Protein 1
Amino acid sequence: MDKDLLKKTVTELSGLIKDKEVSPVEVTQNLLNYIDQSNKDTNSYISVTADSAMARAKEAEQEITSGNYKGVFHGVPIALKDNIYFENEVTTMASKIHKDFVSKDDATVTARLRDAGAVFTGKLNMHEYAWGIDNDNPHFGAVHNPWNPEKVPGGSSGGSGAAVASHSTYSSLGTDTAGSIRIPSSACGIVGLKPTHGRVSKYGIFPLAWTLDHVGPMSKSVADAAAMLTAIAGFDGRDPTCANVPVNDYLSGLNGNVKGLKIGVNEEYFFKDVDGPVEKLIRDRIADLEKQGAIVTTVSIPSLRNAEWVELATSLSEASAIHHSDMQTRPDDFGADIRFLFELGELFTAVDYLQAQQARRQLKLEFTAALQEVDVLIAPTLPFISPNIGDDKVNINGKQVDFIENCIRFTGPSNLTGLPAMTVPAGVVGNMPVGLQIIGRAFDEARVLNVGLAVEEMKPLGDHQPMLAP
């Protein structure tokens, strides 16, 4: 097994494949060998599709050898979250109810990655129906954080976070309704990007809450996230929420230059009740950006005081509507944690839901106004260090507080507004990674990625790496 090859980023690996220094067959077989050894420790994969992966790798090798190189993802093996459909393959949603579900179509993102030449190695574990944070799945088992296998990897895209961090996939996609890309990316020390709502098609992805759902990259580097977004973004008429907005080459636009960049900091919400060591790391990285020529100013967004209620009223109502029929006929087939949430969602009235949408509109207006004054907002992704698997409380400045509530405090507002938001590693506290969140203007992913690159180039993780890395 070639450990150095496993640790390559997509953009590093693609250069080797393009120049024929390594072959897709060699890369894929090496990765499959590693998955066979490592998955017992992380439990990041629900299914491994070794035979089809090797067949596709051989096709990719023949295409490249004959001069038909398709780009960054050609011949690169990746795995996706198991709520993203594959044509004629089982997609379980990590559930009992859908354990044998087979889609007739690829999701749009799956099809676009196929067209880009990607090799799919399997489907990744997740919180059941993407409705949870700890990824302790009653049907497929808990995912373990590669930095410390006793710790929660974050969710709901915990399998994607753990697989990327442990190098058992070169990149992945997650879905994000209240933070499910950014939370596990932060907890697992990788890059996670939730694009603007409508930037990437959700066709062929099982919904959690229609108006809040997003799909986006979870990657080893900012460059990999940029390459992934370039591959999957763009209009799709099969998704009624998809926006017809031109797609940039996000990778070629990266330079890490933040001179003159205006950074907004919201003190009263995004820096309230943050564990001291986490807050220090985020403020240190902001100061580092200032040293590179960025301009930091405070911004006020008063409606953030309502954000947690608005997020819950919206997500619980929409999710409960989606699962209402199964809750009526087979409630015992749901995990206990999400069954409780679906029952809770049934309690909201139409008045509650519509009032939440009015408050949500005001929040969007205030974010838009703030982002006219600054280029990006920067905040912690999570206000604490990941707890142990099974814990429902976390420590913030010596106080034990609710895990789930404090997980989505800083990530949920970007789902309500639909604005792009990315987490990048900011450093390490107690041998666990900490994420810094960058929120940008609608469809301004290029700037968000560029700020992320500036932070990444500080090498905030130093020599620290996950315990379960090869």
Protein 2
Amino acid sequence: MTSHKNDSIESSLFEKRKKLYPREVHGLFANLRVLGVVTLLGLYYLLPWVNFNGHQVVLFDLPERKFYIFHWIFWPQDFIYLALLLICAAFALFLFTALAGRLWCGYACPQTVWTEVFLWIERKVEGTRSQQMKLDKQANSFTKFRIKATKHAIWLIFSLYTGFTFVGFFTPIRDLAQGIASFNLGPWETFWFLFYSFATYGNAGWLREQVCMYMCPYARFQSAMLDKNTLVISYDALRGEPRGRRKRGEDFKEKQLGSCIDCSLCVQVCPTGIDIRNGLQYECIGCAACIDVCNDVMDKMNYPRGLIKYTTENHMEGKKTNLLRPRIVIYSLLLIGILSGVIYSIETRDAVELNVLRDRNALYREDYEGTISNTYTIKILNMDTVDHTYSLKVTGIEGIKTSIKDPIHVNAGQVLEMPLQLSADPDTLHTTSINLTLSVQATDDASISTESEGRFIGPLEP
């Protein structure tokens, strides 16, 4: 008995995957998904080709350690902005999940977006759901091979262009295109081009719902962000049960049936193959395809819509629903506050940065006239999109002299490193260590300036 039970458990755990054939569906939520797919993929594929101020509108230039996003230029020291944006993304996910479940998964997740495209290609090549199932059951033939080969060829071409575009966010895409045309790609570019291409082909073409059900961690912890006031896709069992087939126009109440005609279309359109009539399940990605198809069936049967709909657990239990609850308010305020702060900080940050590094090989030098000198290395980073000329000023010691006399020219996006020697009369040095303030200001724009602290070391006090 025990052996038979263990065998059944193993067979269920390692059961071969059954291919799903999601039926095409039309309706409000299907149109919203199409709009999301077109918008997101449009931005993904078009942005690398758009130039702004001599560079791509979005370019993460890793060799130069510069990240261009529209008119902003970010540097490695701006990593704090990336951390804050990730925090904003987390709060946005918490907010939308608490408000309406898995909106991200159903409409904006890359896995969902690219799977929609692959499904569309599959339908164009192989036909409808029933035609696809019939084709897969056919014996191997030249016709079947031709259709399958055509589908996979289009998938591969689309995947390769997707990988090419991905690398184009890190290498100027026009240079990348020339490199591919001349078979002159660098090793890391080749790796990521092929890796992302075949990841797209594998995830959207072959794995599909397996990624959502077994690989994505979000499905496992989403329940922690839901409550009884969260809008989720639900089947109205009180109205729909007992389900059963009937002819159009029949009085189903005389047969003691509910509104559900047990057509199973809600299962056929589901991209993860679940039956929403069994209640909310972690495999549900919130795409609302079942709502569209059920509403279509209700229209044909002249029944009211909403047998499957977005609703809350409280509403299903006949209780009052409160969408504007404390967690929604808190998430919203935190999201707006942090995002506003990040944008304000980016817009008002200094367009120039000054770093001062003191030479530690010698505390100080004294010449034959008794003048005390300290040596530094300064780095001036022009974070603006245009070239600037800067003047250097040092305060903290009366009459201190610098080895840099002329204005300093720094190109846009350039880091200029240069030596600096500061000299002071020993009579002005009242202590062994004196704090200095070094500042640079653009000679062509008085609003661009910054300063950095330094330290001047003199002889030990007698």
Protein 3
Amino acid sequence: MPASLPPKTTVFTAAVIVAALGYFVDIYDLILFSIVRVASLNELGITDAKAVTDRGLFLINMQMGGMLLGGILWGVLGDKKGRLSVLFGSILLYSLANIANGFVTTIDQYAWLRLIAGIGLAGELGAGITLVSESLPKEKRGYGTMIVATIGVSGALLGYWVGNRFGWRNAYFVGGGLGLALLLLRVSVFESGMFQQQAQSDVARGNFLSLFTNAARLSKYLRILLIGVPLWFVVGILVTLAPEFGRALGLTGEVTAGLAVFWCYFGLVFGDFFSGALSQIWHSRNKALQVFLVFCAVLVGTYLFGVKDASPTAFYTVCFVLGVSVGFWALFVTVAAEQFGTNLRATVATTAPNFARGAVVGLVPAFKYLSGALGGIVPGAAVLGGLSLLVAFWAVRTLPESYGKDLDYVEE
């Protein structure tokens, strides 16, 4: 492994650029199933609307379940073996899995490959944000993670274009090919100097269970997880099930999940930029997060109650602004990385976003139960979304501010 380089004064370092491109491919592959869900299931013989919804939710759960497992695997590996080992290993796994996804002929094959892809997808963002956070000066690392997120989430836009223009199988092939090509760029990236210094000590690294053996550490970790749940309520429930919500809201025309995902992630590009910039300008991660959570609550209400009997164009416009409102994803992961020492930083920064993503596994049955109990998907989503946003707001309010924090320390 090449020797580490000293921190840079510019934010456009090799680590930032490669992490941004890696996250671009990661988001492309992560959100691709939501884009091609209906078309791929129809080709595999699932044509009944209810079956498409049920099977689609099952496959999402398999992918997100893989991300739960992968979050722990890659997080621990990142602290034990280094940030770069995760950046190489994770992208190789999910690239190969997505290429194989293009050949599936049964739902069972589809499910297992989404699980494997999910495991691979779990490592990219946390390792990239950790490396960037440790490589940049503390006053500028928020700009670095902002660049990673802004470029990264635009991968969903390419996924929509490829999926619609070339078909769902070719879309998986393209995603896998992009990942393999990105491996060639990774050779120019240096390992984190903080990690290399800490790796020479006798301090235990990557002990995931140590997050649960100290009450204060556990409380902080759980609050971090709760901050990310609203984003995946929006993406995993509201946007992925856009056709179902469109029918329930009586829209004047049919809407597609792929286009809803496109507009939501287009909004996320702007949201990630503005949330990161505000956290730097205000010198406060927590203040920026609180503003965006309130903004998100307003837009969730608009989505569920403000577009009834509206046109698809109005609905997609709301999806775009809803995407802006949940554009605090990289800021959330940055906060996770900044809250813990070098020997647990990759573990936290990798498990936190994946456990938040994996919350979809719990959100889906809760959504189904509330929809049945309250007489429809709209009131069910309103209650579930309201609860997730309230809890996330409380978590931010009680979390220590991390802007400008010195990260060169370890957890005892």
